[in-house]
Amino acid sequence: MAILGAINPMLSVGLDGDNAWRLADYIKRGGYSALRRILGEQIPQGDVINEVKKSVLRGRGGAGFPTGLKWSFMPRSFPGDKYVVCNSDEGEPGTFKDRDILRYNPHSVIEGMAIAAYAMGAARGYNYIHGEVWEIYQRFEEALDEARSAGLLGTNILGSGFDFELFAHHGYGAYICGEETALLESIEGKKGQPRFKPPFPASFGLYGKPTTINNTETFASIPYIINLGGEHYLEAGKPNNGGTKLFSVSGHVNRPGNYEIPLGTSFATLLEMAGGMRAGRKLKGCIPGGSSAPVVPGATMMDCTMDYDSISKAGSMLGSGAVIVMDETTCMVKALERLSYFYYEESCGQCTPCREGTSWLYKVVHRIECGKGRADDLDLLSSVTTNIMGRTICALGDAASMPVQSFTKHYRDEFAYHIEHRKCLVPVDVQRAGSGFFTATV
Amino acid sequence: MLTSESLKRIDREIAKYPADQKQSAVMAALAIAQEEQGWLSSEAIEFVAGYLGMAPIAAYEVATFYNMYDLKPVGKYKLSVCTNLPCMLTGGVDAGEYLKQKLGIGYNETTPDGLITLKESECMGACGDAPVMIVNNRRMCSWMNPEQIDKLLAELK
Amino acid sequence: MEIEIDGKIAQVPDGSTIMDAAQQLGVYIPHFCYHKKLSIAANCRMCLVQVEKAPKPLPACATPVTNGMKVFTHSDLAIRAQKGVMEFLLINHPLDCPICDQGGECQLQDLAVGYGGSASRFQEDKRVVFHKDVGPLISMQEMTRCIHCTRCVRFGQEIAGVMELGMASRNMHSEITTFVGRSIDSELSGNMIDLCPVGALTSRPFRYSARSWEMARRKSISPHDSIGANLAVQVKNNVVMRVLPRDNEEINECWISDKERFSYEALNSPGRLGRPMVRVDGVLREVDWNVALDYVMHALKDVVRTSGGESLAALASPQATLEELHLLQKLARGLGSGSVDFRGRRRDFSADGRLGGIPWLGLRISEIKDLDAALVVGSFLRKDHPLFAQRLRQIAKKWSKVSLLSVSGDDPLIRLHTQVNVSPSDLPLALAAVVKAVAQLKGEVVPAGLDSIEPCASSKTIAASLLEGEKRAVFLGNAAEQNPQAAQLHALANELARLTGASCGFLGEGANSVGGYVAKAVPSALNAYDMFAQPRKAYILLGVEPELDCHNPRQALVALKTAALVVVMTPFADGAAPDYADVLLPITPFTETSGTYVNCEGRIQSFNGVVRPFADSRPAWKVLRVIGNLLALPGFDQDSSEQVRDEVVPPGATFAGGLDNTLRAAPLSLSAGSGLQRVADVPIYFADPLARRAPALQKTHDAAAPTVRMSEQTLQTLGLTDGAPVRVRQAEGEAGLTARVDETVPADCLRVAAAHGSTAALGDMFGAIKVERA
Ligand SMILES: Cc1cc2nc3c(=O)[nH]c(=O)nc-3n(C[C@H](O)[C@H](O)[C@H](O)COP(=O)(O)O)c2cc1C
Ligand code: SF4
Ligand code: FES
To answer: Is the peptide bond before A256 cis (omega within 30 degrees of 0)?
Structure first.
């Protein structure tokens, strides 16, 4: 089954069965009716954008930027090409929702992109798909073929005179390509190195043309917004946090997977949907929005609701909706070490603070983990993160720093113990048991 | 350098982009070349660059930037195991250790019979299915507990 | 827009960055990746400044100015950010300043003093980056020093027009490299050494030879091509150690070509001639200056007395200074000879006597940036004129339509509008086709003589481009000047200019291509070709090596060998001169004399010597003056080169007068060539006596020995195979070479480079040629 559980779902309605991803099934579920209506009634572009504004849909890719507002930044009358680009590069550790959207509901993304293209006057689009999910890329290509043969993509769509060509572009293993301007560089056939902004993609995007980039889930939500009406969509969530959202729950829960819930649903409910904590162990900490979001201690997390504002109040970010759950068997030093390695490895290498800083952070955390920590290492880490944050070309610098700051803040004692005793506070066999790898069969 | 089959696939990729933006197809073309030849030799990179009308060093930048490209020969099967945090919590690291021990090699090493190369990988966007691994950049294997891993290895033999 | 930086207020145009504004105000903001001529990368982050109301420090190089913006470059926030970046830059940077070639001129070192901490908090292992071998000019031995500013990469992409360096891999393992094992071959590559803010890319010939503070920095002017690049020559213990560009936005901007940068090695070559030599009993013997000059005086007098003044000819190099050229022609004329010239590689001189004035570029170099369209006729552009090519490359990237009418399909690395390649003999026809197309497009009368010409599609495209926009230019390159129908090309280019309103002019081969005319070093009797075609009794050669620098080297060599007297004024004792010279007079190259070059735009640039003359060598102007004195000729009493110059050009003038490309009419007679023809380029590092003697340049790909290049089709028609040894024949001359396929060579043409020993035995640079299996 596609989505393990849902409350008042939209995106994940009717996705059972092997053929749910097919055009025929999608149309049976009411698919392409939004596009059909817009084109049929020739709804003015501004009205479509307004509907999206009313829904208060916030970008599902991580930054949570209001989508309608972003669309309105595109120049209205621009001589030449404009592009819409979908960000399915999903590389943020903990996030695996876009994969399932493309796997089970690809046409919702195609329809959403077509509507976006219509609203912003773009004639061409690309969907940039994470390199590691090859089967999904192939399936999306098939879905595109279906849409093309049905006259839902290409020239003169549904006889309306509206043209929109959409293609899939795959990545090949670079987290940074999830950053929107790195993604554009990557489509242009270059290294995925983020661009300095301004200029923003709306004025200088793909091939230097005005471009709008949204996350897969953002585009997938568009048909539902058009069908329901912006206000109804907003009401499905809570004020300033419109609609439902997919949460990817991973880590120490009984049923890791994707769950669609209205924004504002309590974390406890989500945890319960995911089968609760493994073996009834206690929640030690949770990263609520993908690995770049600061970690939140278990107790604080239990009081949160799952929406942008509440998580932000708890000192973290809703991000991409990737909920990484850690129980008491987790060594927080090791957890941070792995994350720091990730950012060090994935830094594009372009700007000084990130290239040098992420490697420095990793080396120090690694040293602590290996029992070679020094008394002043925690202060050093904090100072290095300050020198990275806000001084880099893209947000990866911040993303690499926030875990370091939050882990060393909330679990300072554990780090101090590690430095002093040169070993984990959580015994290694306990950590191992926690992963359940060996117990799964034995 | 490449088979006509591969060239046809590359041409299909080129057609996705505006006529003056052939370079956009470089990632796909390199992936296709690697799929055909098992890895990316300098000759293959230079060929792709020439085919797309870009400087060889520009194609080389791309080939070295994205980590699914192999610039050195690998075994018949490349097994990439995700060990990132979400996977680590539910056995990703242990799965890697299990594989190392089973195959008698470490990460970035190839079994003496040239069959399997083991790689440690970053998040594959499949954390809910941990432990996960990918065979030859294409086939993702989910919920890889020891039993599943044994099965996979038996199949690849 | 108004901006305030550290309390100072500036008005800047829309689109300016904070860095632009700061430079306008004279406020220094530390930076590494920013460079005024390169695109903005904003990757080093050294230029972070505080901007009022911005929560984070912003990079000055990339942040656009908004009206009323307030910037603080020295606030606490800015300084903390800059220091933080400096710490990051230093953690992996080796602390090897004491042995680093960049020591003393390292931006990182300079800034680290101001912004670095005292003790490093980084106690992990430092990164080590493997060295690379990228050819004879640039050293990449110490890549661990690289700070990833990507200036070198952007230079290749944007200025040189060819991406040879890239930043491979990612994260802290990123490294600057060429494509697996490749060398760097761009003719502008040395500029990357200047651009590198640390000691990662250094000059390979210069490596470890001197520290920056040990050298004096002296101004000079490049003798190599017609642009007159401004140089800074660095000197230690009276030896030229290094040559660097001197910024001059009007001329070379901040660049020089590799030829200009690395030719200095020749100045210190063991082949330098240190003392005068006179042939006695068939053997050249060292003598004192007074003996040599006495000999020259008597020998010249003898020749003139017995055979008349016209039995003497004088040929100079276009690299000779204005003063030297002036005194040489004065000497020749004083002795009764009008056979004086400086244009050795020319064939057709029929324009002489019909010229409206001094042929020149037709516009100022700095005006090139405003051109909407340009047509270059007959040029190996990149190699003949690296910096012109660079300027055209920049304008072609924007809106300008740059077209090429050429005798080869060499890639100029310019985004061309159109390129037409024809054989040298068809070049006038091709140009005529453009002229006719323009006339037709404008509905004007087609100029006489062009009736039978049918413009092809490309000619029409070029014609149309020359009719659009405000400012257009037609340039005649070296291969057009050297063409046997040069005057026809000149006339056609003028016609094209008249019809389109474009400027028309010559790129010019050497540093004094215009200066030679200014100095009147042009013949009133035999020209540079005829003075050898009709052998003379005596020759005076000034800095020229006719066996390499003439249109027909074979003919020149025969004449020189049979002459009664050959006086060679040269800085070098090697080469062919000792075979034919009766007297060798050691003169100084441009670094050891004062002098003047008048560049292609007519700009008069005087310079001083930067080191003392080598051994007993003397500035040529002094030598010529003394010879004039000894011969008791009038007008040889100047005390300084300045006095000589002031005789030629008005004191204080910036530009030469009398620049005029018009040509008094002569009927056009156009005919297509037939049979196999030679196309001769002058390879960049064989082009002049200095470049030829620079060891590092001679190790580059551009200095590979000439081959016989032709299209596959020509190769097959001739029944040859690629790589096979062949014999090439022209009139009486022949040479053994290797055949090579090269699709850039026009049909029925053989490309055989000139200016090289292996082809010196051949005849004219252009014209009929035969080839057969060896
Ligand atoms: C380092 C980094 C990685 C990112 N990765 C992703 C990603 O994998 N998927 C995604 O949709 N957005 C990602 N983003 C956010 C995008 O830059 C961009 O904000 C987003 O695609 C916009 O779409 P939205 O407004 O629909 O969220 C990333 C940003 C950064 C800085
Ligand atoms: S912050 Fe890191 S990933 Fe982003 S541009 Fe800079 S080096 Fe690249
Ligand atoms: S000079 Fe501005 S970031 Fe480098």
So the answer is: no
State mean pLDDT over C601-613: 98
The residues, ordered by sequence, that sit 6+ positions from B100 with a Cβ below 8 Å of its Cβ are: B106, B107, B118
User: Is C761 in contact with C749 (CB distance < 8 Å)?
Assistant: no
Closest CA relative to residue C744, chosen from C411, C437, C259: C411
Asked whether the CA dihedral B60, B64, B67, B73 is positive or negative, the reply is: positive
Tokens of C138: 């640039």
> Judging by beta carbons within 10 Å of its beta carbon (0-12, 13-18, 19+), is residue C119 exposed, middle or buried?
exposed
Residue carrying the six token digits 């099934």 = A25
**pLDDT for the residue numbered C449:** 87
CB contact under 8 A, B66 and A172: yes
Collect the ranges in chain B with pLDDT lower than 50: none
For residue B131, whether the previous peptide bond is cis, meaning omega lies within 30 degrees of 0, is yes
Residue for token digits 């989910």? B142
C45 contact partners, CB below 8 Å, separation of at least 6 = A351, A352, A353, A391, A392, C59, C81, C85
C-beta A177 within 6 A of ligand 2: no
Report the range of poorest mean pLDDT among B100-109, C444-453, C535-544.
C444-453
In chain A, pLDDT over 90 holds for what percent of residues? 91
Tokens of B141: 């294997």
Amino acid at A352: T
Closest residue to atom 17 of ligand 1, CA basis? A179
Query: Cα separation of C546 and A327, whole Å?
Result: 88
| C61 CB near ligand 3 (under 6 Å) | yes
- Inter-axis angle of helices A45-55 and A106-120, to 10 degrees? 120
Domains recognised in chain B with CATH numbers = 4-65 (1.10.10), 77-156 (3.40.30.10)
Q: Which three-class secondary structure string do you get for C706-771?
A: CCEEECHHHHHHCCCCCCCEEEEEECCEEEEEEEEECCCCCCCEEECCCCCHHHCCCCCCCEECEE
The pLDDT tens digits for C258-289 are 999 999 999 999 999 999 999 999 999 999 99
Cβ–Cβ under 8 Å, residues A170 and B28: yes
DSSP bridge partners of A358: none
In this structure, what token pair is assigned to residue A219?
Answer: 């585009």
Contact criterion met (CB < 8 Å) for B16 and A98: no
Q: Which amino acid is at C486?
A: A
Using CA atoms, how far apart are residues C49 and C63, in angstroms rounded to an integer?
10
Residue with tokens 């290694």: A428
Distance of alpha carbon C607 from the chain centroid = 18
ipTM of the complex model: 0.95
Collapse the DSSP code of A324 into the 3-class scheme (helix H, G, I; strand E, B; otherwise coil) and give the result.
strand
Half-sphere CA count of C772, side-chain side, radius 13 A: 4
Residue B31 forms contact with A (CB below 8 Å): yes
Alpha carbons A295 and A285: distance in angstroms, whole number:
7
Which of B68, B85, B138 lies nearest to residue A291, judging by beta carbons?
A: B85
The two three-digit tokens of residue C259, written as one number: 């030829």
Q: In what order do the strands lie in the sheet with A296-297?
A: A5-6, A257-262, A244-251, A322-327, A283-287, A296-297
C741, C712 in Cβ contact below 8 A?
yes
Cis peptide before A199 (omega within 30 of 0): yes
Among candidates C163, C168, C180 on the partner chain, residue whose Cβ is nearest the Cβ of B55: C163
Collapsing DSSP states into helix, strand and coil, what is residue C35?
coil
H or E stretch including C512? none
Q: Which residues are within 8 A (CB) of B12 and not within 5 positions of it... i.e. 6 or more apart? A: none
Identify the residue whose tokens are 């029929």.
Answer: C350
Q: Which of the four pLDDT bands, split at 50, 70 and 90, describes residue A2? A: low
pLDDT band at A441 (very low <50, low <70, confident <90, very high): very low
Q: Beta-carbon neighbour count of residue B40 at 10 Å?
A: 22
CA C95 to chain centre: 38
